[in-house]
Amino acid sequence: MQCIPNINIGQAYDQRYAHEDIHYERYEKMALFFGRNMPLHHHDRYFQVHVILQGSVRVQLDNHYYRVNAPMCIYTPPATPHAFVTDDETSGYVMTVKQETVWALLNDTGIIYDAPRCFSLKHSDTKTRHFLELCQLFQTEFENETRHQHHAIAAWTKLFLINLLRMTANNNPTLNTGTTDSKTFTRFNILIESHYTEHWPIVKYAAELGISTTHLNTICQRLSGKSCKHLIHDRVFVEARRLMLFTGQSINQISYQLGFKDPAYFSRFIKRMTGLPPNQFRLKPERDL
After folding, report:
1. Ranges for all domains in the chain classified under CATH 1.10.10.60
2. Which InterPro entries match (predicted)?
3. Which CATH superfamily is domain 180-288 in?
């Protein structure tokens, strides 16, 4: 079975954003690093949007193929295999957002956002003009450090995604939502998000998905390079890290909040994940983590 590479933008491209929820960059700058012929890959827990302002793009989304001229958008949910080739004049923006951030921003909107999309933008359309202006404003906000920037970027991201998904309603209503494995992987991640503090055993996740634990592990290894257990532990650690670095709660309080019955086990978990016990991890400068 082919192993599709999983690319983590914060680790592979810009480590300044390794722990950030949202990354926004000019396409041409990323193309200098990754190249303009990007072979099949995926982002296992990230949504990604390419807004192409100039040039033409050949795109593969799952088993669908497109050739589209700018202005256009490519919308890629987590675990969706995709590839593209662009010409030398192609320019635009790339937004990469953690899936739990998208869930938090859009779950109360009723918008369907789990299907990959590739569509043209109409030059003469008012919605297109407003959306492209929004892209430029977002880039300005992201590039310049300002007060309350974290909250501003979250608000801009919600506005960006809502406007993008509004425009897809008439542009691409029939594109399928991905292969069976990618759908299962997405459902698994949604279950993790709902139950990671309950410390479900793998067999319970598999039962909820209607597959065997072996099949679930195979899907996770193929799409993320990690086991089911590793993915669950990653999500627990993301929340543990946030609580340790950005709240004043005690280690005991955090351990109970995350479903650990014994704070000593939580301490061993953190040391296994970071090489440091929780109290030392808290004292280490964030940029060194």
Report:
1. 180-288
2. AraC-bd, Homeodomain-like_sf, HpaA_TReg, HTH_AraC, RmlC-like_jellyroll, RmlC_Cupin_sf, Tscrpt_reg_AraC-type_HTH
3. Homeodomain-like (1.10.10.60)
**Which residues touch 261 (CB under 8 Å, ≥6 apart)?**
none
The string of pLDDT tens digits covering residues 45-82 is: 899 999 999 998 988 888 788 888 999 999 999 888 88
Please name the amino acid found at residue 81.
Answer: P
Where does residue 89 rank: exposed (0-12), middle (13-18), buried (19+ CB within 10 A)? exposed
Thinking of the domain 9-171, which architecture would CATH place it in? Sandwich (2.60)
In percent, the amount of the chain with pLDDT more than 90 equals: 35
User: How do residues 195-248 score in pLDDT, each as one tens digit?
Assistant: 999 999 999 999 999 999 999 999 888 766 779 998 899 889 878 988 898 888
Which range of 85-99, 105-119, 136-150 scores highest in mean pLDDT? It is: 85-99
Residue 18 is predicted with a pLDDT of 67
- Token pair, residue 176, equals 């399928």
Asked if 67 contacts 56 with a C-beta cutoff of 8 angstroms, the reply is yes
pLDDT band at 176 (very low <50, low <70, confident <90, very high): very low
Nearest by Cα to 37 from 3, 83, 91: 83
Residue 66, beta-bridge partner list? 59
Q: Which of 239, 206, 223 is nearest to 43 (CA)?
A: 223
Look at strands 37-41 and 82-86 and give their pairing.
antiparallel
Q: Which two tokens stand for residue 155?
A: 């608000």
Q: Do the Cβ atoms of 23 and 56 come closer than 8 Å? A: no
Helical ranges in the chain per DSSP H: 9-12, 27-34, 99-106, 126-143, 149-171, 180-195, 202-209, 213-224, 228-246, 251-257, 263-274, 278-283
Task: Dig out the tokens for 162 from the structure.
Answer: 């809502």
